Amino acid sequence: MLINSAVYHDGRIVAEPGLDGVSEALESRSGFVWIALRDPTDDELGLLQRELDLPPLAVEDARKGHQRPKVEEYGDMLFAAMHLLEVGADGNLEVGEVHVFVGPRFVVSVRHNSQQGFLGVRGRAEREPHLLGQGPGFVFYALMDAVVDRYFPLIDAVEAELEQVEESMFQPGQDRQAVVQKLFGLKQRLATLRHAVTPLLEVTSKLHGGRVPAVCMALQDYFRDVYDHLLRIQGSIDAARETIIAATQVNLTLVTIDESLVTKRLAAWAAIFAASTALAGVWGMNFEKMPELKWAFGYPMALGAILLVSGALYWRFKRLGWL
Amino acid sequence: MLINSAVYHDGRIVAEPGLDGVSEALESRSGFVWIALRDPTDDELGLLQRELDLPPLAVEDARKGHQRPKVEEYGDMLFAAMHLLEVGADGNLEVGEVHVFVGPRFVVSVRHNSQQGFLGVRGRAEREPHLLGQGPGFVFYALMDAVVDRYFPLIDAVEAELEQVEESMFQPGQDRQAVVQKLFGLKQRLATLRHAVTPLLEVTSKLHGGRVPAVCMALQDYFRDVYDHLLRIQGSIDAARETIIAATQVNLTLVTIDESLVTKRLAAWAAIFAASTALAGVWGMNFEKMPELKWAFGYPMALGAILLVSGALYWRFKRLGWL
Amino acid sequence: MLINSAVYHDGRIVAEPGLDGVSEALESRSGFVWIALRDPTDDELGLLQRELDLPPLAVEDARKGHQRPKVEEYGDMLFAAMHLLEVGADGNLEVGEVHVFVGPRFVVSVRHNSQQGFLGVRGRAEREPHLLGQGPGFVFYALMDAVVDRYFPLIDAVEAELEQVEESMFQPGQDRQAVVQKLFGLKQRLATLRHAVTPLLEVTSKLHGGRVPAVCMALQDYFRDVYDHLLRIQGSIDAARETIIAATQVNLTLVTIDESLVTKRLAAWAAIFAASTALAGVWGMNFEKMPELKWAFGYPMALGAILLVSGALYWRFKRLGWL
Amino acid sequence: MLINSAVYHDGRIVAEPGLDGVSEALESRSGFVWIALRDPTDDELGLLQRELDLPPLAVEDARKGHQRPKVEEYGDMLFAAMHLLEVGADGNLEVGEVHVFVGPRFVVSVRHNSQQGFLGVRGRAEREPHLLGQGPGFVFYALMDAVVDRYFPLIDAVEAELEQVEESMFQPGQDRQAVVQKLFGLKQRLATLRHAVTPLLEVTSKLHGGRVPAVCMALQDYFRDVYDHLLRIQGSIDAARETIIAATQVNLTLVTIDESLVTKRLAAWAAIFAASTALAGVWGMNFEKMPELKWAFGYPMALGAILLVSGALYWRFKRLGWL
Amino acid sequence: MLINSAVYHDGRIVAEPGLDGVSEALESRSGFVWIALRDPTDDELGLLQRELDLPPLAVEDARKGHQRPKVEEYGDMLFAAMHLLEVGADGNLEVGEVHVFVGPRFVVSVRHNSQQGFLGVRGRAEREPHLLGQGPGFVFYALMDAVVDRYFPLIDAVEAELEQVEESMFQPGQDRQAVVQKLFGLKQRLATLRHAVTPLLEVTSKLHGGRVPAVCMALQDYFRDVYDHLLRIQGSIDAARETIIAATQVNLTLVTIDESLVTKRLAAWAAIFAASTALAGVWGMNFEKMPELKWAFGYPMALGAILLVSGALYWRFKRLGWL
Lengths: 323, 323, 323, 323, 323
Fold this sequence. Notes:
Five copies of one chain form a homopentamer.
Chain A: E1 2-9, E2 12-15, H1 22-28, E3 32-38, H2 42-52, H3 56-64, E4 70-74, E5 77-87, E6 93-103, E7 106-112, H4 119-127, H5 129-132, H6 136-149, H7 151-169, H8 176-204, H9 220-283, H10 298-320
Parallel strand pairs in A: 3-7
Antiparallel strand pairs in A: 1-2, 1-3, 4-5, 5-6, 6-7
């Protein structure tokens, strides 16, 4: 589905051609065209490929989707794939994609399976014509910057939940299974984030510094900035991941300690009752000559002995910290 | 066993020589020959070696099999080995191999221990003469692409089974041994996949970009595409592997938690019965002066006391979540 | 908030301009200006940016904070971010930041969220005019050196606490949960330290040896010294981290051993009481013909038998080390 | 001890000098000498050093033994050390060594602590004069190839034993200690193999492709073949190692599951007996007014009640899978 | 404290100046001076710095100590720091240091916190004037070689103790806590060794092969030899470390297996006694009509029944391997 299509000259809109009028629009005037598609049909992509002479392998990737983040050069063109992450209904991250074709005179963004649009990016760019006037490379930067900026709240959320788990973990009476399930869920979310960030980090490092594609040449400081943002996210991901691994390990130890405490309590109570039962059993024996059975205060004495033994054991276990 | 042998010129079949007529067929006309063998005898390989002047060390590898995935250059020739993976009867992956000799005027594919043929590849190539006309390099690409494409459903299957385990793992009453066995099986399957993919990834990276063997020179974009597919599979393998490691760890914790729950239940019921038994034991003592034994309602009172104590304990353990 | 602003010539103060007089002060005389800000407002940063022509992306970073340690070149300028670590009220490390802009004729340090000032650095520098006379690069070195020197007591504290844990860990009767909590806390502190040190190490390695920014050129031996300090801290962090991982693992084993000991004791006492109870139960049976019940010394004999069996079991368990 | 000494010209033996006649034999004719020593005395090595002008540091290494696998260049000479592995009496791997000095006109192999000779290598080389005629470099290759080929059955044995453990591990009633002991033993064997293979892999990679020592120059394809074999072994080692780590982890989980099953059974039987005892205790109380004690069918009823309760519990635990 | 100071010419002593006469002694004759200090005062270091014009940053390092192993170039001078390891009273490794300044005409070794002197090195060097005549670089090599050679017995001791643990670990009745404590201690010792060896390995690799400091140029084969020794130690450290990790993991499994065995025994004995008690309880009930109570052989029969049940259970548990 076509969302937007505009030809910009010196940072201002000069035409809004349909998909089938793009090449014509570009021929008749200077400037570049910025086209935004969403979940396009094969026909739309085919049309665009013919109009802009897009490389077949890249179009094939855009058609099939499920690409890893990457930037590939085809002659003087770039094809980029990035992941769009959204929090789904069940709290997990859902992965959409945006593919960007960047040529000397065009930018095409193709969005798949994602609610996150880029109208805001276009709006902001149109309000700063001196930047937009830098051409397709700047649009490419602006899109990438927007994609990367949307990763920050996701990693922040993971960090916040993680901190909460860390704080509660050592408090007594935790539901250990809930802790381990939470940690596992966070780890899965981090994995999704990392698969969006790490390959992108790698390719972004090639958009500044050394040999840089022509279309990004003048914008190296901007791409270094994006790279720096990605490095920061990557650092947070690594830190969170380590914390999760450590916390999972700690949680296992705590489970074992918990069990150990229960075993101790069980041991203590079992001993107290077993002692009482053994004593009662002794006075329940049927020997004829058991003088204390005849004593006037035999029974209270027996009860006293049982309570005394139980109390002594109780006190001892209390001191050992078993009860 | 010879499966196919055809000389192509401008992408069309011009001759179908036997193994012993290959060199003659090539001398008398232009074009290249594409030969497919399956589990060949030493004689067949020896014949081919003489006909096409194949390097002895490479033929030795093809004869012995059990090669790791690789691409080796011998002068203007390439020798490639790739793994063919099939799901066996017991659900494990079985490893076959295909070896490919690529020269300026020939491609020989030798398949070992595998049901997966490449007739489809030949058919598709013959239907696109303009591509097949690019020569042996294109056939090499087409074979590699076919091999790699067949890895996708295998990793997809692993991911699907893994997701199922992840979902069920936290539900109560799981058979923990079945979970750990499943995870271990998936890990083994991933290892097999990785041993097919990782070395191939490494060598494929040398078929585009930098110094590239002459026979692949014009097809760099195609090999980059294969490389990209392999990267994607590798990413999936890494992700699945991490998930399995985490899930195995989580499962151990869950086993320990399960045991802890059982210990608690045991502790609770033991306490309830032990208290009852101790009380009954007291009233079973044989002292002469135990006034309550003579009371009219002594017995119901005792039963009541026993039930009361048991009930109180039951209620307390229920509240603690032990029962 | 402006803390200090001074123009130095040949290592001595020659003027103390306000934020809005910096460019004028530099134009009218030779030397360089050293400005220190703390938690600056956007206006202050904006003013400074115009006065010194600072690069917008760097100023944006300084404004937003939460940067990872880095050194970025913008033409003949450097922008550096470093972490300032302080022990917070709860014993955790709190992360502040200092950003430094270094140009041919200025140094600006911007401190965020930190109590740690650099007045001492300025004082020491002013007492050594021959060093300060080397210009902004030397000030940059002095600031970095001060930041890094403040990491040493933090890692020393971690090492000291860790050593204490190591020593006490194997002593009987430890609170295992306290140990694991302590180890986890130390690991988190180390992570914070590492996120301050590792990226800084990486960038510092580019300030000596190979291609070095012009402003640091003459000071390579100094920056190598800082690099060496960072390497030492990094080594300590790595060692402490490994020790923590090993200690956590050991602690889990010790927990399990502890539990095993408790289980053994429980088993032993349960056996002793169960044997007594079984014996007493036998003599509490109501058979008419139980000759020993009539014996004069039947009861003492029974008590003796019970004590004998209990004693024998006790002695046996003692020898097994279960009690 | 001298085992063999022969001067070869054009691949055929032309002289068999003693240790003290080597230099003379070489001076008087063309060709090269191939000397094999086993556990040589210091005198023998000293003699050889003078005759062939061997570098002192290399001879020192050969004298002391306990070298890691390596290839070192001394001018136009090579000194190589490789590990010879043998299955010892206790099933562990025993490490011997072979040191090889390769010069333009000599090859000396020195074997330490190993039963594995190289007579077969010499025999095979003598049967192929056209290969042996390539000089000392070929002999070096043949020795290395023989050493590496002997690693294959060792890793195959590890893989076979590992597969057996994997298959039996999940079957009920395993001796878990035997499993863990087996896995530990396999891991140790793999470590020995890896310490033979990994350093050799590293040095072999320098004998083909880039800058290659003169003596190996013409044999690069051969050394690449050895390198490829080593890569294959390394791959197998890595795979086996991962499997062992995973299996050890799985085994720990299985131990814990086993324990959990036993605890459940214990809990179940304890509950059944405790219920019976409590009931019997109740009817063993001495209250005067316990009407059921007087009933004609009181006793069978009581027995019935006890059996009923026990049976109900038994049935319940059976259904829970605890029994 | 000054230990030794001598000027050597052509490998022989020609003067023995005090610290304050060094520069004078060097001016008046050719050759080089070799000075050995131990725990020097600041004054001594200051004096030496002025006499030999040592670089301030290096002297500062030597004064403060606690350096990581390193070799730094200052113009035509080298500053090296190495760790001296000694087994302390408690069996742990204690870390001392030796710093070496190497200039074109001097070598200064500064020893800290260590009993290990280098008189033997000096003696050996003086006995081989042709080697000592090679100048300061040779002395530097001799010192480094001596330091590294002293690491071998330390790693050998670790390996021997580790082997002992490995052998005893699987024998029944081990003190598991002692095992884990031993393994932890060995790991700590290895960590100390590694922190001495790994950084030294890295710097030593720069003293041969590529660009080498002038003072070491002629001695590359010697430094490669030291490098090779360090590689060997490193290999041993890595192997021992892996074994420790595996053994710690195995030990945890063995602890759990041990506990499992105890739980089984407990379960078995509990069942036997519980059955006896339940039976005795039944015949201890007070029903009026319990015909067997009146039988002549009722009591022996009851005892028999109890023994029979106990025996049957005992036999069954024996067969299950629980007792």
